[in-house]
User: Fold this.
Amino acid sequence: MNAVRSVARPLLAASLVASGVNRLRHADETARHIAPALAKVEKVAPPQAKSVARNNLLVARVLGGAQVGAGVLLAAGKLPRLASGVLVTTQAVNTFVEMKEAGKGSTKEEKATRMQALLKNLSLLGAVMLATADTNGQPGIAWRAEHLGEQAKRQAYYMGQDMKFKALGAQNSLAQANLNVAKGAHNAVHKAQKAVHNA
Assistant:
């Protein structure tokens, strides 16, 4: 399976890296495409983020750079799940833009080309979503968290049992000590009575 990953990840990343480079080279065009989406984001964004949402060119460059960086990481097999998560975000933006653009176009050929681009972006989005779930044969975070929880429960149970046994042992020791004191007192009284009787 590792051989499949070592081939599949670069193949998946190649198109995404090329798309990211294209975004960086044509950042002004990308900014124009994402402007309607950013206008909607600006309406609901907190005051601190409004200035960033207004700067379409900066957002376009950040998206392109993030896509290139995450694609390179995915291709190299470094932090693949994190890289895939970043690619899901950038690819979701690509898909959203393509959905807006899909209906535009003056001729049937242009509309068909835009629809093909939309379908390609949807396919890539699905692929990077699958890549985020690929644990490379290792247990996922959810499994680890659940396993740690069960382990903690078991340890707490055994500690409780141990404390219970220790408490029972302490009770038994105390009872034995009381019994020994009572026996000692009884023997002392008996000796005293005997001494009085002999006298």
Summary: Helices lie at 2-25, 27-44, 47-54, 56-76, 80-102, 108-133, 141-198.
